[in-house]
Amino acid sequence: NTKFINIDPDNIDMEKLKIAADILKNGGTVAFPTETVYGLGANALCEEAVKKIFKAKGRPSDNPLIVHVSKLEDINELVLEISEKAQIVMEKFWPGPITLIFKKSDIVPKIVTGGLDTVAIRLPSHPIARKLIKLSGVPVAAPSANLSGKPSPTKEKHVTHDLMGRVDAIVCGGDTEVGVESTVLDLTSNVPMILRPGGITKEDLQEVIGKVETDPAILSKVESNLVPKSPGMKYTHYSPNAEVILVDGRIEEVVKVINKVKKEKECEGYKVGVMATEETKDKYFGENIISLGSRKDLKTVAANLFKVLREFDEKRVDIVLAETFEEVGIGQAIMNRLMKAAGYNVIHA
Ligand code: TXA
Ligand code: MG
């Protein structure tokens, strides 16, 4: 009973999109493409509608959602104040892959914010996302359109695989471009803090607002007695069925160690995959070697990351050995997602 709506992002059929917008307006759930990953939307101002998102994904209720708008003015009714730095970031990077945290107004239901008095807001740049939100006439709460804990969907087939039969409609609009979720930036503290690295990098932000901090929870395991600033960060994420192990170090050594561990584990009867790069893929022995792209093009690596994690599941591998990347630019987001997929399990070569 999930309705499939195919839309060409370069030639949007507004009649068809209106079917999806009406479902949103009337309290239903609709998955749709954004420039980062596919989202699962519902009317953010309607508690009953938002409940359906948590149910469809199997998402813990204390993990807050991002509210998506189609134009800048739409945020006024959702927030209490807009700081000068927020204004600068919005003007520079919206529409685009960055989410900002504001103090919320009373019209935002607590179910959206997981009980917090702040709200996360984003103005996406994907033409289907923007037109859909605009047509619906409401702000749209939307987490990534995957089952809770699974890699975020970058292709229609990922959404269908996870959510068919669990949501009212899926708008199919091709592959997403960025491939990792939006940067989450908290502007409610003195020094702005990145709670989740993403499409807009720390370097990009520092150019326009000066000093920016990174939540220490981003690249290391959060101690259980520490409350993470972004509640979502404490849950295992992006995990395929296989066990993921990162291998860190000089790339020549990494290749050696991965080949050695692969052989050992295969001897023990496990099916082992390797998450490689264009530069290294021919240096590994055996099967189930998948390249993320060239180390010289981290944007492509980011765009392929979740797709490749899902490909290892399709191949039913038991263990994935993965190379690491330098934590600069989009490399921060790549390493954050890899660390979470691996449950912080790293071997040093
Ligand atoms: O790119 C994206 O952001 C995608 C697309 C669909 O827009 N959405 C997405 O949503 O990734 P989700 O729910 O998978 O991740 C939202 C993240 C979580 O880590 C959550 O904890 C954090 O944003 N978040 C939401 N509201 C927050 C708040 N008020 N304070 C701190 N973190 C918040
Ligand atoms: Mg998510």
From TrEMBL:
**Can you tell which superkingdom this protein's organism belongs to?**
Bacteria
Pfam families, A to Z: Sua5_C, Sua5_yciO_yrdC
Report what the protein is called: Threonylcarbamoyl-AMP synthase
Annotated keywords: ATP-binding, Cytoplasm, Nucleotide-binding, Nucleotidyltransferase, Transferase, tRNA processing
Alphabetically, the GO molecular function entries are: ATP binding; double-stranded RNA binding; L-threonylcarbamoyladenylate synthase; tRNA binding
Q: What PROSITE patterns is this protein classified in? A: YRDC
**Per its UniProt record, what NCBIfam families does this chain match?**
L-threonylcarbamoyladenylate synthase
List positions binding ATP: R59, N63, T118, A142, S144, S152, R196, Y238
| Residue span(s) of domain YrdC-like | 14-200
**What InterPro entries does UniProt report for this protein, alphabetically?**
DHBP_synth_RibB-like_a/b_dom, Sua5-like_dom, Sua5/YwlC_C, Sua5_C, T(6)A37_SUA5, TC-AMP_synthase_SUA5
Q: Which organism is it from?
A: Caminicella sporogenes DSM 14501
Q: Name one GO cellular component term.
A: cytoplasm
Give the binding site residues for L-threonine: T36, H68, R122, S182
Lineage of the species this protein comes from: Bacteria, Bacillati, Bacillota, Clostridia, Peptostreptococcales
Q: Where does it live in the cell?
A: Cytoplasm
Q: What is its main location?
A: cytoplasm
Q: What family does the entry list?
A: Belongs to the SUA5 family.
Alphabetical GO biological process terms: regulation of translational fidelity; tRNA processing
Q: Spell out the reaction equation it catalyses.
A: L-threonine + hydrogencarbonate + ATP = L-threonylcarbamoyladenylate + diphosphate + H2O
Function statement = Required for the formation of a threonylcarbamoyl group on adenosine at position 37 (t(6)A37) in tRNAs that read codons beginning with adenine.
Give the E.C. number(s): 2.7.7.87
